Amino acid sequence: MHKSPHELRQMLEAARSVSHSPAEDAQGVKALREVVGFCPAFVPGRLALSRAMLLNKSEVTDPQAYFTEIEHTLRDAVEASGDDVSSLIELAHFTDVVRDAPQDAEPLFAEAAQRALTLLEAAWAGQIGVLGQQDKLDAALKIAEMAGKVLPQSSRIREAVEFARQCSSR
Question: Residue by residue, what is the 3-state secondary structure of the chain?
Fold first, then answer.
């Protein structure tokens, strides 16, 4: 039986609460491994596991194998998330700092930045639109001004502003 998203979040929070001291860190990693075991595609569990493993290196006997496991956990998070921004950033930091490979981290950061801009554009356009629907044109135009500084060529933002103006003129 599969766990629901709510149950997985509860398991994740319980696993995170296990570790309050260095002696408990290994137990926290074990609990997070169990969360990932229940649902390998649960990206927040994979990200939490990789972070916990990076912080709990005290009993590692084979550092190369340990870091390889962390890298696989992060790559699986990127894959399972469909190249989600936060997963890409986590993998990029790992690649830069742990693997000392900034040339490999650079395209990961670039992809994360591009995806983040796309999300930000969608969020701003949506916010501008709903503000217009509520006759809050001044607030919509403030958001549009900020968005225009970051994304000056965005047709999506321009269309959202047009929509907001049309809504407020009704």
Answer: CCCCHHHHHHHHHHHHHHCCCHHHHHHHHHHHHHHHHHCCCCHHHHHHHHHHHHHCCCCCCCHHHHHHHHHHHHHHHHHHHCCCHHHHHHHHHHHHHHCCCHHHHHHHHHHHHHHHHHHHHHHHHHHHHHHHHCCCHHHHHHHHHHHHHHCCCCHHHHHHHHHHHHHHCC
